[in-house]
Amino acid sequence: MATTKVIPDVLDLNEATSESGLKIPSGTELNRPTAAAGQIRNNTNETSEGSASCEEYYNGTSWQKINNVTPPPPAFGFKIMLYSGNSSTQAITGVGFKPDWVWIKERDKTENHNLYDTSRGVLKFITSNSTNAENTGPQRLQSFDSDGFTLGSDNEINDSGSIYVAWCWKANGGTTESNTNGGITSTVQASEGFSIVRWTGTGSTSNTVGHGLASVPELIITKRLDGANDWYTWHKDLNSGTNSADYFLKLNSSDGETLNSGSPPSVWAGTEPTSTVFSVGSTLSGSSEEYIAYCFHSVTGKIATGAYVGDGNSSGPTISTGFEPDYLLVHRLDTGDGWRILDSARSTSNPRNDYLDANLTAAEGTSVFSNVDFNSTDFQIMNLGSTYNNSGGRYMYFAIKE
Predict the structure, then answer these.
(1) Which residue segment(s) compose the domain that 362 sits in?
(2) CB 370 within 8 Å of CB 382
(3) d(C-alpha 115, C-alpha 103), whole Å
(4) How far is CA 39 from CA 12, 42, 60, 62, 271, in A?
(5) In the beta sheet, which residues pair with residue 64?
(6) Based on the domain organization, do 312 and 290 belong to the same domain?
(7) Smallest Cα–Cα separation from 400: which of 212, 232, 224, 191?
(8) Same domain? 288 vs 350
(9) Which of 10, 71, 372, 374 is deepest in the core (most CB within 10 A)?
(10) pLDDT digit string (tens) for 8-40?
């Protein structure tokens, strides 16, 4: 059977300076087939990139230029895995994709949270409950696999007889790109609504970093890798959404929102994120220092983040997400409290009340003061504890659907 070979410089759909690119016959309107999704045509009536014509594809609604069309990001993926340790090598499978960010916590013992990602590579971990720099352990996470990940024997992630939870996120399968949108060139891998960003500080008091997302981030979690530093965190609803970049949170601390004095402020440089970059001050741009950020924005049916005000009632506020959450992170903004994590794998029915705190090494707890219902399009606070529902208290939330 004959084959067709495409030779470079002969077929070039982005031909910019001449008509040497191979053309798809244009025909006439009467001879063209009815437009169908995925169909490609040559449009000789519209110029593109200096050429007298351009190629187009039909997306099911309208014709779109192939020239300079930005491909959509990979679909967002999230999965919660529960497993028991074996103090040996162990492959955790069933995630359904290659995870790019794996956050592990031993549930029945006091141990560190262990965070791994494909941008930094295997064996390298950071801990959300401490200011410690990135560390490397020979028996830590050994590989990121097509359907999960493989563990070494370290007791913090794989102790025999202990039980664990792993929250797994998908970015771009470990494939990173250089991002030059900001004043600091960053290394980014992104999926729909989630990106992992690495950069090296310049020593400047105000600079920008490209985040790789398709729209403005709503939650940014950062950590210095090569030295001790807090987990500086920004959320769009800091200070009730007014001048939010003048404030910060710390994921490793129970503190509430803190006003960042200085000119410019030393964390976010007093500048809100945009659709392409977020700003960093001297705290996140020390000369030659290494940093990482996990960035999110809401995605219909998959990710929702925002804020609510507590009412102090046992049947408290209902917060619309547009989906039934499988993961929920809540933190009090005005006075501070724990970074409380609930999920549908550890608590399989309402009320969801098996909790872990991202800022603590404490084992999993269960309490009526942690009751939250996960409903088809929302979650409802079903307790009057200060962690979730103090009257007049302001809270941020981050909800995800598997």
Answers:
(1) 303-400
(2) no
(3) 4
(4) 18, 11, 9, 11, 44
(5) 57
(6) no
(7) 191
(8) no
(9) 372
(10) 444 444 444 444 444 444 555 555 567 887 777
